[in-house]
Design a protein that fits this description.
GO biological process, one term: 3-(3-hydroxy)phenylpropionate catabolic process
Distance between the termini: 17 Å
Keywords: FAD, Flavoprotein, Oxidoreductase
Low-confidence stretches: 1-6
CATH topology of the largest domain: FAD/NAD(P)-binding domain
Number of helices: 11
Radius of gyration: 22 Å
Pfam families: FAD_binding_3
Structural class: alpha+beta
Strand order of the largest sheet: 6-5-15-16-17-14-18
Number of domains: 2
Mean pLDDT: 95
InterPro entries: FAD-bd, FAD/NAD-bd_sf, PheA/TfdB_FAD_monoxygenase
Largest sheet: 7 strands, mixed
Organism: Clonostachys byssicola
Length: 411
């Protein structure tokens, strides 16, 4: 598709080459909107990160042409189980109950998704990826957004109709807009994310598993066809990387099924990190917009962060598309700001917060009293109730096309 220079947006700048930045850039370019994607790094981030994409994220990934390949290269997710430390199943969600529903959860490590998106973006004539370009300052203008960018050739001014910050938790765009304040809190714990080859199947485990314990809580999920698993467990805060690494063998032996010794598994990555629940003051200020982790953070248990970020850019694309096509005014971006922040407050934050709180309970008390486990057990009683429960997360998206001037839904 070629750009129509007689109307619409001349250019959008997207800052960040994570999943939100790449997917948004690809959506824009495919619709005939010129896009420049900037990143301060010299290549894609290949660190181990999220892996699972919920139903509303899959709709965005399908729209951009990535979902079929995610399913081809990734694994089919059968379900998730909440367990006691001895492995007893307290509740389960069977994704297999959705059959071949295109919205069902998909799974592919994020670095592989980003590689697919980047490969597609590089084929788009209206897209330019600029590595080693770091935003150092933003400037507000009524007619255009301006950036001062540090490049290999020195500082440059770049302009666009809109700039979208998809530059993660430490977003320069957000900090330029609001300073260091990022409302919310940091959990008083550390999560250790490991990728590991271990024979969980011989212990009767498959798919995704959440183990409940006040100290030895963890998540174990099958993430690749070659047998790689992600194990993320809780640790005390404040230790050094080396101290966490020294504690890992004893931790694995204590928490994993089969109580394995170091020779029985192979760890391929080890990453301690802090977790947060935070929401930016606004997701639109003039011609500057935020999406994904630059706008909001949540803990990783339940996959709400990645799914929420992709839904952000799906909704934002519909807004920018409407403006470009002359079917919406710039005011639609205020609705993007309102509804995406509302979805965080009403859905992403409470659901992700309750997931981590549940994992840190006494398992017997959780079995008896936790409302989330009760809901899962109730939903599991019939095929239809299971489907309804799992697809309820589709409400995380908001139909922005209803605010088009002609009020006609589009695909």
């Amino acid at each position: 598709m070629v750009v129509n220079s007689s109307k619409g947006l001349k250019k959008v700048i997207v800052v960040g080459t994570g999943p939100t930045g790449l997917v948004l850039s690809l959506l824009l370019a495919k619709h005939g909107i010129q896009v420049e994607c900037l990143d301060k790094n010299i290549e894609l981030d290949d660190q181990p990160r999220a892996t699972h994409y919920g139903p509303p994220a899959n709709r965005v990934l399908a729209k951009v042409g990535l979902l079929d390949r995610i399913r081809e290269y990734g694994i089919e997710v059968g379900g998730a189980r909440w367990r006691k430390p001895d492995g007893t199943v307290l509740a389960k969600i069977l994704n297999s109950n959705l059959g071949d529903n295109p919205d069902r959860i998909s799974c592919l490590p994020l670095n592989k998704l980003c590689r697919l998106a980047l490969d597609d973006l590089e084929k788009e004539s209206l897209a330019t990826i600029r590595w080693n370009h770091e935003v150092v300052e933003i400037r507000h203008d009524e007619d255009q957004a301006k950036l001062i960018v540090s490049t290999p050739d020195g500082a440059k001014e770049m302009t666009a109709d809109y700039v979208v910050g998809c530059d993660g938790a430490n977003s320069v765009i957000r900090k330029q807009l609001f300073g260091p304040d990022f409302p919310g809190y940091t959990w008083d714990l550390t999560i250790i994310a490991t990728n590991v080859y271990y024979d969980f199947e011989s212990c009767g485990w498959s798919d995704s598993n959440f183990v409940i314990h006040p100290e030895n809580y963890f998540m174990a999920a099958h993430i690749q066809k070659d047998g790689l698993w992600r194990v993320s467990y809780g640790e005390v805060p404040g230790l050094t990387l080396e101290e966490y690494k020294k504690r890992q063998p004893a931790k694995y032996e204590a928490i994993l099924p089969g109580n394995p010794k170091p020779g029985q598994y192979k760890i391929t990555s080890f990453s301690p990190y802090k977790v947060h629940q935070r929401l930016a003051q606004k997701m639109r200020v003039g011609r500057f917009l935020l999406a994904g982790d630059s706008a909001h953070l949540c803990n990783p248990f339940g996959g709400m962060g990645l799914t929420g970020g992709l839904v952000d850019v799906g909704d934002l694309f519909d807004c920018l598309k409407g403006i470009h096509d002359g079917r919406a005014t710039a005011d639609i971006l205020d609705k993007y700001d309102h509804y995406r922040r509302e979805k965080y407050r009403q859905f992403i934050n409470p659901v992700s917060e309750s997931n981590l709180k549940r994992m840190r309970l006494n398992a017997d008390e959780a079995e008896a009293n936790d409302p989330g486990l009760k809901m899962m057990r109730e939903a599991d009683k019939s095929l239809e109730s299971s489907k309804t429960f799992q697809l309820g997360v589709l409400g995380l998206a908001h139909d922005m096309t209803q605010y088009y001037n002609d009020n006609r839904q589009v695909v």
